Amino acid sequence: MSKPSRHTGRRHPLMGVLLLVVGLFATGGAYAATSAGIAHAETTPLAAEALVNEGEKLFMANCASCHGMSGEGSEAGPSVIGVGALSVDFQVGTGRMPMAASGPQAAVKPVQFTQPQTDAMAAWVASLAPGPGLPDPQYYDAEGDVANGAELFRVNCAMCHNVAGAGGALTEGKYAPHLRDLQPIHVYAAMVTGPQNMPVFNDMNLSPEEKNDVISYLNYMDENPSVGGFSLGSLGPVSEGLFIWLIGLGGLIAVAIWLTARSN
Amino acid sequence: MAQRPPSSDLVTSEMPEENDPGTAVVTSNSVSNPGLEPEHQRVTDLDPREEKKAERRIALFFTLSIVGSLIAAVAYVVFPIIPGDMRSVRLNNMFVGLGLAVGLLGVGIGAVNWAKSLMHGHELVEERHPTRGDEETRKTAVEMFSQANKESGFTRRSLVRNTLVGALIATPIPAVVLFRDLAPAKDPIALMKQTMWAEGVRLAKDPSGVPIKASEVTIGSAFHVVPEGLMELEKHRLEEKAKAAVLLMRLPVDELNESAERASWSYQGIVAYSKICTHVGCPVALYEQQTHHLLCPCHQSEFDVANECEVIFGPAARPLPQLPITIDAEGYLVAQSDFTEPVGPSFWEREL
After folding, report:
1. For residue A263, which residues of chain B lie inside 8 Å, CB to CB?
2. pLDDT in tens for each of the 352 residues of chain B?
């Protein structure tokens, strides 16, 4: 099938004209892309450099007071050399950075920067030293094996983040945050970079496919409500015990009092 | 109390002049038995309109109950459980449950209301009947026993009687032997002192069972580890896992303080500690990679990984046992030996 068509195509009289047009568009397009700058960031080295410069400016204005003028860190904040673009995407993209106040742990708060600004800072931090970059989208599409993800979650994550992802307390004011309704890329980034006191789960420990399985499990729990009805925050015996001792037992006592009370 | 009525009998206690013979001081202000209170009149007893209202209220509860029961039946059909769809289970449970709750509570609350506000409200004292039977009943009982004895020959045929008593005594003997055999056949103390770890056993990932190379454990990593081959065990897999579970962490070498005799137990900042808490055996795995603290979720014991897992907070009495590790020729992490002390909580025969 393809053989004869290619044969005729190569000998078509208009083929030369077509090639000329394609060539002109390609050179013209490339020129337009370089002069357009940031708009076509990934396409040319010049645009990438502009992005890095933009990121450096943002870093100097917003981060350098703690992380140092060249990202070397200070007493107030750790070095960002070698943490990689993924770490910046997580810390800034979830609103953890810049921190509102120093404390045991950076809390999630409204995001301070737009995604292009975050990308620019990530590009600058990545230009300091090699570090983990953004993964291939197929590794956080939440289409993985939910059952395997649940097992990996129970072994590696549940002791801190609670088996239903409700989060939990750590030592001295630190805590493992809840894992409800997160962006998959942030879950992936947390596993790779080990933000704050979370351990690192590198690709040899949990492969990218396994990370996607964990993301799929979290996504499944977001989309499927608890079968048992009101889950009381999925905190287990603490909230369930409080409920049954106060509401359950209190209700029974109230009924007992009502049963023996005189009618008026 | 300085004085009490001479007896529990109501009649005598109503006479305060007659003092208890055991009381030396004569008191004259003892409390007299107040008797029953005047009968309490309810609004439904006094006002026929209230009575009618109560009647309607009770009927309303019973009607609600009928409605609830019907709702439960209808909800079961309207919200069917679709296999594989958890939402359908949730809806089905909620509406059937609500219907049943209204159905049962309606009957209960209605009935209690009826009894409390409409049924007669007289208070009465119910006398307890005497426990001692009358003379005739007592005589008949004795007669029945002696007649049974005469007819069966229970006292006369002593051979039959004694062998029966012997047989009854013997029946629990098999139970004693059977229940005794439920105890572990082997000495359990030895089992508590050894795990699957031995010289050259590779450290493998839980749950996949894939062995771990030292180069894969980057700084800040935490691996949940089982001995290689545990997943292939056909018997006692969970028992072995419960004893051999290990947490593998890599710290910057300069932050790790090791004593001289344990300096060879780690490999370039990679350390392996038992995951079983020395307090009551919960899995300790809440690892903070910056502070190098391990937290037990059950009773908040805190261990410092940088200082050989010494206890820095909480009820645990001993540090977590360390597994001595090294690498083999292919670069895989292996155990140098079993744990050098029993893992997990204390027990009577533990020597430390």
Report:
1. 42, 44, 116-117, 121
2. 344 444 444 444 444 455 556 666 666 777 888 877 777 788 888 889 999 999 999 999 999 999 999 999 999 999 999 887 878 888 899 999 999 999 999 999 999 999 988 888 777 788 888 888 889 999 999 999 999 999 999 989 999 999 999 999 999 999 999 998 887 777 777 888 889 999 999 999 988 899 999 999 999 999 999 999 998 888 888 999 999 999 999 999 999 998 988 989 999 999 999 999 999 999 998 999 999 999 999 899 999 999 999 999 999 999 999 999 999 999 999 999 999 999 999 887 777 5
Mutate to test the interface with A, among B118, B208, B282 (most CBs of A within 10 A): B208
- Exposure class string for A75-106: b at 16+ Cβ within 10 A, else e: eebeebeebbbbbbbbbbbbbbbbbeeeeebb
For A46, the enclosing helix (H) or strand (E) is helix A45-62
Choose the closest CB to B295 out of A156, A170, A258.
A170
C-alpha of B155 from chain center: 50
Contacting residues of B for A204, CB less than 8 Å apart: 212-213, 216-217
d(CA B302, CA B320): 10
| CATH number given to B191-335 | 2.102.10.10
Distance between CA A202 and CA B67 in Å, rounded? Answer: 59
For an interface test with A, the pick among B113, B246, B290 (most A C-beta atoms closer than 10 Å) comes out as: B290
**B219–A200: do the CB atoms touch at under 8 Å?**
yes
* C-alpha dihedral sign at A79, A85, A91, A92: positive
Q: Residue B282's closest CA among B245, B227, B237? A: B245
Give A3's contacts (C-beta < 8 A, 6+ positions apart). Answer: none
Point out the residue among B289, B293, B295 whose CB comes nearest to the CB of A194. B289
Contact A159 B218 (CB under 8 A): no
| Token pair recorded at residue B247 | 């947490």
ipTM associated with this complex: 0.74
User: pTM score, two decimals?
Assistant: 0.72
Dist. CA B274–CA B243, nearest whole Å: 8
Q: Which residues of B touch A158 (CB under 8 A)?
A: none
| Amino acid sitting at position B167 | A
Of A199, A262, A263, the CB nearest to B220: A199
Contact A197 B249 (CB under 8 A): no
Q: Do B207 and A204 touch (CB under 8 A)?
A: no
Listed by start position, the domains of chain B span: 43-118, 135-167, 191-335
